[in-house]
Structures are given as structure tokens and as C-alpha cells.
Amino acid sequence: MQTLRASKCGLSTAQLPSSILDVIEALTKAGFEAYIVGGGVRDLMLGLNPKDFDAVTNATPAQIKDVFGRRCRIIGRRFELAHVYSGRELIEVATFRAPPKKAVTSASGMILRDNNWGTIEQDFIRRDFSINAMYYQPHTGIVLDFCHAIDDIKNKTLRLLGDPTLRFEEDPVRMLRTLRFAAKLNFSIAPEILEIFTPKLTPLLRDISPHRLYDESQKLFTMGHLNRVLPMLIDFDIWSQLFAEIPPQISTFIERAAINTDQRIQIGKTINPAFFYAVLLWKPFLERCEFYLSKGTVPAEARAQAGLDVLKRQATRTIIPRFAETFIREVWEMQTRLLSPKPQQIQALANHARFRAGFDFLLLREKSGDASTQGMGMWWDTYQLMSTDEKERAISQYNRQRAKSRRKAAVVEETVDARAAQVEIEPLVNEPEPRNRRDRKSRSRPEKPVQKAVSASDGSAIAYDHPILKRKRVKRDLSHVVFGPTQ
Ligand code: ATP
Ligand code: MG
Predict the structure, then answer these.
(1) Residue 264 or 434, more confident
(2) What is the pLDDT of residue 180?
(3) Matching NCBIfam families, A to Z (predicted)?
(4) Is 216 in the pocket of ligand 1 (CB under 6 A)?
(5) Cα–chain-centroid distance for residue 141?
(6) Nearest residue CA, atom 4 of ligand 1?
(7) Same-domain pairing of 43 and 83
């Protein structure tokens, strides 16, 4: 073990938020050892902006709770952890871990339960990469390096601690982490990892829950180097484990969307990882639409069914949360609406909550050479920049053009409805079937018959369907869904 001077590693307390400094200080004052560890230390040393700071200590979760009281919550089962609130931030505080006394593992060697507290030396051995295993004590200004991690930082090398095969077997997600860090940090992967990182090991990922894999896929999408990691996912046979139904090819559309996502992150814009799922699954969705159309299903029904099918199949690998599923289906449905809008609906469409994401998606398709958008991506792009008068003129011109020659039907385009166009837009997608049994039950329960009226105390009649008597319905709040890439 070598003790390094933090200042010599390019670290200073000035780079640290007060939240992490407070947590380390409180634990140290209470007589415990406490360090910053993991990605925070690594990224600071590399001159990057850390996503967050994790703390590690020899205090047990119960002792951490004693130090922080109501600011602390113990979470986790496999890994018990303390969440400490400092100001508006949350700091994850872990206790040094020893190797499991009696390993609770799955048949393939995966660790399932693991809460044996240990020493810092034992804790270090259990971490994944050398560069993630440096312990920084900001108050004393020292960094503990047990494995010459500093050399790996200098040589830009990603090295697993211990035997790579064993470490991948213990936790197959480390395969994804290898590619993520190699892409994010632009590090080379150590030869001993490359040697064993073959399609023989990747099926171990099938043991990982689709929830955890969804979280990991989100980290891949949002790390800022999505475009760099995509070919690696294919080369290392991770793609087929994560996205079984998506052909392992990076189309121009996928590549453009990845570049766009990275650019947005670079300039500090938010992104919605579900948007990239919508991009990845677009081709399988179109193929599934074709399948239903060839069976004579009406277009709207074909799209609805195809959307559900494709997402259901993807959920066997990475389970997509319900709100993200709805978002994806709405983005797809928007493609049809934006391609051939009813003139009266144009303004309403432009104000629709899903317009931005749908439009970005359409424009990305168009810019990657998808002729089936028929130039409508650019049309909407120009439309948004117009004054109210110009918009009116553009709509009537569009209307005339449309009347002259109805746009040819695109692959998933619905024949334009002959019914009187309504300005209001029908819901883009119907809520899918609830996943759990309780919700399904409540959905199938018949509605109570509506009685006509009751008498109020003043003798006047109050209709039973009067809003005041209606149960308050909580609508799903989609406001936290951030739209996808913009140009
Ligand atoms: P970032 O937060 O930038 O994605 P990170 O290295 O901080 O990167 P976290 O997932 O926050 O990653 O984990 C914090 C630390 O916990 C890691 O640096 C590593 O030391 C350890 N760790 C996380 N996941 C694993 C794992 N699957 N196996 C072993 N150690 C892990
Ligand atoms: Mg981290």
C-alpha cells in the first residue's frame, strides 16, 4: 500500500462539494475512519467532473445512523448501505466489506447476499477496477493506493482487481462496467481482461435481473460517450445480451441519435434514456407493424399491437419502466401524426406534450436518410420558427398541397381519416395492461352504475356524476420526462 499526497494527485478540497466534506468530517469526528472512494476520486484525478461522491467508513450502518440520526436511512439487502442527506444532496455511505463468510451464491457463482463488515484492505480487494479503488481522506489530504492504481491512471489502463474470469462470474455486470469505463475514460482494457472477455462469458448476463440491466443500459446511454461504446457492445457480444431482438448493426439513424445524445450531455442538456430505446427499437417496431398489416390488421391497431409486442420482448432483457414504455410508444405514434397531420390539428400537435420528442425523432430519421418522412421533419423544423401569420400561411399552403395530392402512404401511415377533423388530439397510446395482479383486478372491476341524483340538504338535486362527488383521479405525471435530443 502506498500513501500519496492528494495535492500531488491533482486533488484539493476546493473541488469537493460541502455535502461530502460534511459527511467525512462528521464520521471522522465521531472517531471513525472515513474516505471518499470510487468514481469521484478517479474522475477528479483525470480532470473530469464526477457524477457523485461515495463515502466509505469502518462504521457499521447502525453506527452511521447514530452519527447522522434522522438524516440517515439504511437501505439495501444484498448490500446494506446508509444514505445520508447533507443539505439537498444525498451521499451514499458504505461500510468496509469483508469477503462473505459463507458465500450466498447462485449456481453460476454470482454473489447474492453479502453483508460482512471488514477492514479497508478487505474492502479494497472487493472493488472492481484498480482505478475505482483509491481512498481519499480530504481532511488529512492523503490518498491510499493499495494496487498501484495511480500507474493505471497515468497509463490509461482499465485493470480488474483479481482474476478477471472469477470477477466476471461473481458479478457479470462488471462486463458492462468494463466497456462503460473504457469508453467513458477512453482507457485501454488490460490484456488479461481482453483474453477472457469472449462470447463464452457474456451469457452470464442472463442471470442478472432485467431491472438491473435496464439501470445499467441507462448508464451506458447517459455517460456522454454512447457513440463510442455502441461498437464495443457489438464487438464484445454484449449487445445481443442486452437487446436480443435488435440486429447488432449500428444504422445511420442509431449512430446519429447516439452522437446527438452525447452532444446534448456535453452542453449540459438533459436527456431521456427512453428516447434512445425508441431509436433502437424503431426497426423491430416497423417490422412488427408490417407483420400485422400483412395479416390485414388496421394500421392504428397494427401500430398499437406492434409497440406492445416489441416492448414486451425487450423487457425480457431490460425491463423498461411503465412511464418510459408509454413515452416510447407515444414517440412512435407521433411519427404517424407528424407525417400527415390534419391541417386543423397542426397547432395543437405543435403544443402537444410529446411533440418535441416526436419531432426530434422524425428529424433524426430524416437526416439519416429515411425518405419515408417525406420532408416533414424539415417542414416542422421551419414551422416552429415562423410567426403566427407565417404559420397560418404555411398551414393553408400545406392544406392546398394536401388536397391536390394526398401524400403517399408511408410504411406505417394510416389512411387519412375521412371523418371531420377534430382540433383536439386523441390520446397517442392507450394505457397498456397493468403489470401486477391487483391493478389488473381493479381494472376489470365493472364501473358502479351512475345514479341520477340525490337531494342536497337544501332540497336541490345534485347529479351523481357532479365533479364534486367524483373520486379524484390521479393522472400519471409525465412532467419529469425530459425530451430527447434536439438539433
Ligand atoms: P460512476 O459513478 O462514474 O458511474 P463509479 O466508479 O463511482 O462510477 P458506482 O457504481 O457509483 O461507480 O460505484 C462506486 C464504487 O463502488 C466503484 O467505483 C467501485 O469501487 C465499487 N463498485 C461498484 N459496482 C461494483 C461492482 N459491480 N463490483 C465491484 N465493485 C463495484
Ligand atoms: Mg459513483
Answers:
(1) 264
(2) 98
(3) pcnB
(4) no
(5) 36
(6) 39
(7) yes
148 part of a folded domain:
yes
The pLDDT, as a whole number, for residue 110 is 67
Of the given ranges (52-56, 154-158, 399-403, 404-408), which has the lowest mean pLDDT?
Answer: 404-408
CA-closest candidate to residue 184, choices 49, 294, 374: 49
Identify the pLDDT of residue 464. Answer: 39
Question: Is 171 in the active site?
Answer: no
What separation in angstroms does the CA of 244 have from each of 54, 254, 314, 406, 422? 33, 16, 7, 38, 40
Q: Please report, as a single letter, which amino acid is at residue 418.
A: A
Cβ contacts of 205 within 8 Å, gap of 6 or more: 172, 173, 175, 176, 213, 238, 241, 242
| 128 counts as catalytic | yes
Q: Angle of helix 388-404 relative to helix 376-384, nearest 10 degrees? A: 160
Domain housing 401: 340-355+364-413
Task: Provide the 3-class DSSP secondary structure of residue 235.
Answer: helix
Averaged pLDDT of the chain? 85
Q: Does 36 share its domain with 145? A: yes
User: For residue 381, what is its C-alpha cell?
Assistant: 423544423
Q: What letters, b where the CB count within 10 A reaches 16 and e where it falls short, cover 191-224?
A: eebeeebeeebbebbeebebeebbebbbebbbbb
Query: Is 133 near ligand 1, meaning CB less than 6 Å away?
Result: yes
pTM given for the model: 0.82
The residue assigned the cell 430519421 is 365
> Is 301 inside any structural domain?
yes
Considering only CA atoms, which residue is closest to atom 12 of ligand 1? 39
Distance from Cα 336 to the centre of ligand 1, integer Å: 42
Nine-digit cell string for 145 = 493506493
**Is residue 145 flagged as an active site residue?**
no
| Cell triple for 339 | 407525417
Neighbours of ion ligand 2 (CB under 5 A): 39
